Amino acid sequence: MFFEKSCYGLFNQVPLKFTEAEKQCQSSGGNGHLASIMNGQEMSVVAAYVKDLYKAGKPVWIGLHSYDLPKSKAWKWTDSSVVSYHNWAPGQPSQASGDELCVELMAGDYLTWKAAPCTGKHPFLCRAPLEKKG
């Protein structure tokens, strides 16, 4: 799927842990990473895409994860984009543990985000910038 200047791909055949999913996105070419979501319009387009392709009703990894633990629970995107937008579900992000947390699109609407242990295996959404031609 294409949106603005990016290409998105949903990998739902083999669920992976967060770090494995990020490596898969990188190895798929095109400077890809787990998807970063920059605004509400992009979130709506991504959610419709995932919902249309993936009917299993399970969470899907995106590229946001916590760091600087246990001092703080700061968040960063795997592609180093600035975290300027979020769409947390009520009660999220969870502050329950000192472990690294990664972010999944919640099953159902795929619009809201939930923090979860990075060791869970889920389908995942990759995003790669479209290459400039010329």
UniProtKB/TrEMBL annotation:
Domain C-type lectin residues, every copy: 3-127
Entry's localization field: Secreted
Coiled coil feature spans: none
InterPro entries tied to this protein: C-type_lectin-like, C-type_lectin-like/link_sf, C-type_lectin/snaclec_domain, CTDL_fold
Gene Ontology cellular-component terms listed: extracellular region
Keyword entries, A-Z: Disulfide bond, Secreted
Top-level taxon of the source organism: Eukaryota
Annotated protein name in UniProt: C-type lectin domain-containing protein
